[in-house]
Amino acid sequence: MEKLTKKSGLNRVAEIKLTYRSKVKPSERPQVTCSTDCAEVLRQSWDTGKMEFVEQFKVMLLNRANRVLGIYELSTGGVAGTIADPKLIFAAALKACASSIVLCHNHPSGNTKPSTADLQLTKKLKQGGELLDIVVLDHISESYYSMADEGLL
């Protein structure tokens, strides 16, 4: 049996590590109470040199007290779009033990209105979050358009 295991490679499996390290005390983390607070914190994380050049997708991770655990830069795409993989979004939220998330992306065109794809993705992520007890609070464009404030969430 031992020879079979060595030959088949069953003793070679990947080690999985889940880590989240914060150098900021919980009491010093910014607290958000509305969409404008979220937009302000997110705005500070944008590379202004890329905002009008490529589309980026970020996720703000929050604890139960709506204190910011971190901002996860999920993807950078092209002029007309970027990929927002739900698995990666929720992997980051679970890794940080987030209670809620705020989605954010920019439109290099300057158009603040969400596209049909934006609305479909947000709905899909909201449903996925419900299964994991992770609330999707809002989806904000970097130029400040809040789906929650507009009743679209």
TrEMBL record:
Pfam family of the protein (one): RadC
CDD domains: MPN_DUF2466 (cd08071)
MPN domain ranges (all copies): 31-153
Keyword flag Hydrolase: yes
GO BP term, example: proteolysis
UniProt-recorded Gene Ontology molecular function terms: metal ion binding; metallopeptidase activity
UniProt-recorded name of the protein: JAB domain-containing protein
Organism: Pontibacter qinzhouensis
